[in-house]
Amino acid sequence: MSLQTYVLENDEWVARTVSADELMRENAAPLRKTGRQSLSKPPTCGLLTRTVVESPVIRWVLPVQLRSARYNDVALIGDHSVQICELGRDRQLQDVVRKTDFGSRIRNAVVMGTPQYSRKVSEDGTHVKTEDDDTEMADLSGTAPSSRDVNSVLPPQLLVLMLEQGDLVFLFLEQGLARNWVFVSSTHKVSGQRLVYPGFHMAIDPSSKFLAVGCSESIFIMYRLESMEELRAAYSEDRTFRPIKEVVARPVKGIIHKIEFLHPTHGNEVQVILMIIMVQPEVSRLAVYEWESTCKLGETFLEEKNGYRLDDDYRLPLLVVPLKVRNAFLIITERITATCSDILSGPPAFVQFELANREDTELHHGTREPLWTAWTRPIRHPPYHDRKDVIYLAREDGLINFLECGDEFEIETSVSMGSVDCNIDTAFASLFHLFGDVLVTGGDSGPGAVWNVEARQSPQRIGSIPNWSPTVDFIVTKDGVFEEASESSSSSTGKKNSDGSSSIGKMVPYQPDKVFACSGRGITGAITQFRYGIQARIGLDLTYSSNIKQCWAISDFGATEEGFFLLLALPNGTTILHLSRDLSEASEIDRDAIPYDLTSTTHTVQEFEGVVVQITTNYITIATSTGCSQNSIGDVIRDHAAVVADAVVRGSTIALAAYSGSSFKIILLSIIGLEVSFERAFDVEGEVTCLAIERFDGDFVVLAGLQQGEDPTLAIYPTLSQQRGLATPLFLTLKPAMLNQSSSMVDSRGQGATFGVLTSIVHRLGERSGEEVVIAGTRDGDVLTIKLNRSQLSSYEIYRDRFGTSPSRVYSGNMIGDPDLVLVCGDAELGIMTSYVTDRQGGHFDEIYRVWPTDGDRPNMSSPPINSIASLLEQLPEYGESTMVMIAGPRIMVTELQRQPKPVPRYFPVGGTPVKIIYSKRLEALVTVVSKNGLPSLHFLDPETGKDLSQPLERKKLNEVYNYHGVDYITGLGNADTRAMSLTTWTYRAGSVRGDWIVLAMRRKDNEGLLLIISAEPETTSSQPNGSRWIRFWTKFDRKIRDGPIWSVATDEHGVFLCVGVIIQYHIIEQGKFKVVRQHELPTPACWMQVVNGRLHVLTTNHSLIILDYKSELMDEGEQMRELYTDDTCRNGLHFIDVGVYTSPITMLSDPMCGIHGLWIPSEEDRPLKLIFHAELQASIRRFGRGYTRPTWGAFKNRPRYGCIPSGLPGSDTIGLTIDGSLQHFTVLNEDAWRFLRFVQNLARASATICPHTSSSPTTDEFDLEPQLYPKLNMQVDGNILQRCLNKRALEELVSTQYLQRFRELLEPLDEDGYLSSEEGPVNDGPVYELAYAILKYYLAPVF
C-alpha cells in the first residue's frame, strides 16, 4: 500500500509517494538532533544531442527537375529531409544533394512547373546530353550568397514544401562557385495563428498558376503564383525569387477531407477547376470552384460553394485521382472504385468499375482488406494525353494496377501488374525513361525499391532504397577491447604524457562494436546492422582459383571484340583475364596469346600514352598496339644474381629495389621506345620496403621506405644527375618525436613507440603552397602524413592515423579522379582519407570514411576483406571516375564508388517481425524474438554472416536423465496468445553454482505472465564442414505468473526482478525452486528496470524514475524494498541509461513525447531526484545503448577533453534509437563546454545562413544570445546546428567583431592546448577560431 503526500524539503513543499512501512519506520525512529547540514549540490551539466543516422522513412517520391531539363531528377522527401537523386542511364538512383536544415517537420509537398524531358536518342540507343558531365555534388544544405552568380537560369520546376511551423518553402538547385549543387529557397509565412494544421492538404493546378493549401478543417488558402517564365525573367534580371503573387483565404463548413485541382477541358488554357470534399456531421459534400486564370481571386472565392451531397459509399475516399480527360477523376474507397466525369454540368455521377486481382498478398498486415494508398501518372508524349490518360494505382501490400482511361469510355483498361515485394505507403512515383517506365516504391516498414516496367511485363526490381523502420529495439555488441592504464602507469601517479594529456583511458587495438536493430514487419522484417561510410555498389563479382595479391586494368591492343585485360599478380605467378566492356563476360587468356610475363609475380604495371609496361620479378615487358619487347632484368642491370623486391614505373622512368647477397640497391632505368636502359644505381644500407616515383617541385624523385634500424626511414632520391634542390639522396628518419605535439594522440603504443616499417608511399598532388605532402602506410597499421618544407626538405612534421594492427597500404586518389584524397587498405578494410588541412595539429586529413562494398542481390553480405584496388578510369570512362576493381583474396569485384558518406545498412532477413534483441558475447550470437504469423520464436544469428544458428530442443527427464529432441518451438513459445515483453541475459552466481541463461518474459492474452529461463550452448558435436556452427537451446524453467502480466525484467547475480502488474518481485533460486524474497508496489507499471551500482533503478510508465534498495541487511525476510530516491515530477517513461560519473551519478531517461530528461541522484538518501537538463528531439528514444562504435582511426582520438563528461568507460559513446529508425548521439557537457557550444548555437539560430527557415533577429527583447540556465531545456545543445556551422566554416561570419570578445571569454576555460596563451604580439583572431573549430570537430566526430 502506498499513498501520495507532501513533505517539506529545502524550504519547499514537494510531492512524494510513500508506503505505509516507511511511515511506520519514520514514526518509530528516535528523534535526532537537528542542525544545519551541508547538502550536496547538483552539477551544472548540458547535453549535446545530434543525429548520427537520419530516419530512412520516405513520405513522398516526386519527379522534379530542380537543376535543368537535362537532368532526370527525383526528390525523396522524408519528415525532416529532402534528398535529390538522379536517375542514371542504368536506371539506378544516384545521390545528388541533401537538405536537412528545415528545423521543422515537412507536412506536405508538391511540384510547381512542367517537366521538359529530352527525347533525343543516340545511335546506340542511349540518352544524349549536350553538355559536359557534372562534377561531384556536395551537400551544402543552403545558399551561399557568394555562389549565386554562377548561373541565373531557373530550372523547369520548383519543389514546394509546407513546414509544420507554418512556412511555405519554394526550392530549386543551382551550381555554386565550386560546381557543387546548392539549394536556393524562398519562404512565405502562412499568416494566422489560429489555423489548424495548415498544409495538411496541398494541391497545385496543372498549369502551376494556383496553389491550394488546406487546413485540416474550416479553411483553405488559395495562392496565385507567378508563371515560371515570369520567375525566370525576374531571377535572371535582379536575382529576385518571389513565387507568390496573390493570396485569398476561404472558410468552409466542415472538415476538409480532400482537395484537388481537376484538369481543364482540352484546349481551354485559362480554365481552373478546384474540387473539395468536406466532411460534415453525418454527411460529406463535394464542392467545385471553377474560374478563369485571369479572374481576381477575391471575387472567385467571395462566396462559399455548398456543393453536392455524396452518397455514403463515397463519403470518405482514400484517394481522389484527377484525370486528364473530361474533367474527370477517380474516387477510391475501401471497397469501391469509380469514375466521375463532367462534374461541371451537374451533380456528380459515379460509374463503378472493378480492379483486377484484389487478393491479399503476403505483405498485408491486419485482418481487413488492404487499402489503396498511392497513385502516379507515367510520363507519356504530350499528344497522348489529349484523348487518354494512364494511371498506376498502388496498394499497401505491394499490388500495382494499371488503368487506362479514354475520352469516350470510362475505363478502357484495368490490368494487374502483379505485386512488388515491398509495402507501399504514400511514397510512389513513375520516373521518365526512354525505354519503359521506372517505378519507385516506398513504405513505412521495410526497404523500398526501384522497378523497371516494360510493356506487358511485370515490374522487375532493379534497385533498392534503404529503409529499416520501424525499429523497436536495438543492441550494441561488446566486441571492443578496452584497457585502462595499470597501477604502474603514469595515470595512477597523476603524471601526464609528453603532450600534456592524461594517460587514463588508453586503448588497445580492437574491432569496433556493432549496432543491430529489430526492423521492419512481416516477411520484410530483418535484423539491421547500422553502418556508415562510402557505399561501393558491386556490379561484377568473380572468384578466381587462388588468392590475388594485386590487380591492374590494361588495354587489349589486339582485341577482336571490345573489352580490356585484368592483370592479376598471384603469389607465385601472374595471370590475365579478359573482360567484355559491358562486364557480361570474363575469360582467362592463354599465355601464348599475350606478350606479358606470366611465369613470375608482377610488381607493378603502367599504361601511359598507349604503352603498357609490366615489371615482374624476372622481366620488364613493354607492349604497344604495334609491337612489344621483353627484357630480362638481369641483363639490363648486369647482375643475374640480383632479386627484385619491389618496382615502380612512372612515365619513362623505372625504379627497382633489388638485393644481391645481403645488400640492397635502388636502380634507375629509362624507357626509350621498346628498349630499357640502365641510368644509375644507389647503394642502400638496410632493407628497401617500398618504392614510389613522385613529382617534387616539377621534377621526378624516387621515394623509398627503408628499414635501417629501430625507426623507419623515408629516403628521397633524385632521378637526374643534376636535379635542382636535390643533388644527393636525402634520408629522413621517422621518429615519434617528430609527431606534431598538438595532435594529442593517445593510444596504447604511447608517444614513444616506434613506427612500423613503410609498406607504401603516395604523394598528394593537390596544390599546397611551399610544402610537399607524402602519405605512407606502415606495417603496424599506421598511416603517416608527412609534411615537408619544399625549400628545406629535411624539415618535416608527421601526423599519425591508426587504421588497425595489420599492415596498411595507401593508394593515390588519382585512380578515381581525385588527387586530394587517399585510399587505404588496412585490417582488411578499405578507407578513404579526404579534406586535407593544415592547422595546429599539423597537416592531416580531416575526414576518414570506411568503404562498404554492397550487393543489391545479397543484402546480408558481409563486407569482404579488401587487400588491393585498381582503377578502371581509362578502360571504362563511360561508367565514370568512381568505377574501380577491388580484390578480396580470390574475389574480383568491379564496383561503383559513391562519393558522399551515408548509412549503408546490412539486413539479416528473419521471415517475420523481430521484436526483441540482445547480444550474447559468450555465444558470439545475436538473440532475437521473432513473431511469424503471430507465433513468437527465439532465434540465434551469427553477427558476421547473418546465418540462423538456432537448434531448438525440448528437454524431457526420463529415469533421472534428461533427453533432448528437436522441435520447431521451445516450451513456452509458438503460441499465438503470447507476446514477448522483455528479453535479457542472466549471469547467475551462487556459491559453486554458475549459470549463463537467457530470460524471456511473455504476456498472455488472459492478462497473465509467463517467465522462461532458457539454456543455450554451442553445438558440441564434431566439427562440421565449411566451418558451420549451431547453437542448441531449450527451456530450462517455465513459470506462469497469475498475478498479472510481466511488464519488464532485470537480473543480478543472485536473482530475477519481475514487474508483475504494479508489483516488483525479486525471485531467487532456493532448493531448486524460485522464491520471492523482496517486493515493492509501484504507482504504475515499470517499463524498464536495471541494477545500477547495487541498487534497482525502476522507470515507470507514468511516475518517472524510482531507485530502490533491495539488499539492505536490516530488512526482514519478505519485507518491502526501500525507496531511496523518487522524482517529485511525474514523467512518462520509455527507457533510461546511466550517464554520470561515480561522484555525480546522472540518469538520462526518455519519454513518449520526444523528451530527454537528465536526473541527478544526490548523495543523501530520501532527497528527490533533481532535473539538471532537458532536451527535445524529433522522435522519441525507444532504447539507449553504449559502446565503442567508432572506427579504429577515430577511437584512438576519442578521449574526454574540452569539457566532455565521460559516460561509461572512456572512449565509449551513448546512442539512442527512435521508432522512425534514426540514431541519436548524446554527450554530457560540463558548464564551460555547455556555455560555449550553446552560445554558438544561439548565434547560429539567428543566422539565415545556418538556419534559413527558423532564424530570427537577435533583438534584445526576443532573443538572448547569452546561455541561460533556466528553463532546463536551455541545457540542450543541438549538434545538428553545430554541424552546419562546421561544414560551412561559418564561425567567422557568425561571431564577427560584435561578439568576438565574449566568444573568446567562453573559449578560455576550454583551451587545453594553449591556443590562446601562445599568441604573440597584437591580438590575433586566428587562434580563437582555430580552437573553436577544433572543439566542434571533437564533439562532432563520426560515431560510426
Walk me through this protein's architecture.
Helix 7 crosses helix 10. The protein is 6% helix and 46% strand. The longest helix is centred in the C-terminal third of the chain and has 15 residues, at 1231-1245. It is mainly β. Mean pLDDT is 87; it is low at 28-35, 121-150, 482-509 and 742-751. The radius of gyration is 35 Å and the shape is globular. The strands form 20 sheets. Strands 34, 55, 56, 57, 58, 59, 60, 61 and 62 form a 9-stranded mixed β-sheet that branches.
Strand-residue fraction?
A: over 45%
Nearest-integer average pLDDT: 87
Separate helix tally: 10
Class by alpha and beta content: mainly beta
Using DSSP, what is the number of strands? 89
Shape: globular
List segments where confidence is low: pLDDT < 50 over at least 5 consecutive residues: 28-35, 121-150, 482-509, 742-751
Oligomer: single chain
**Helical content band:** under 10%
Q: Sheet bearing the most strands, described?
A: 9 strands, mixed
Span between termini: 48 Å
Rg from Cα: 35 Å
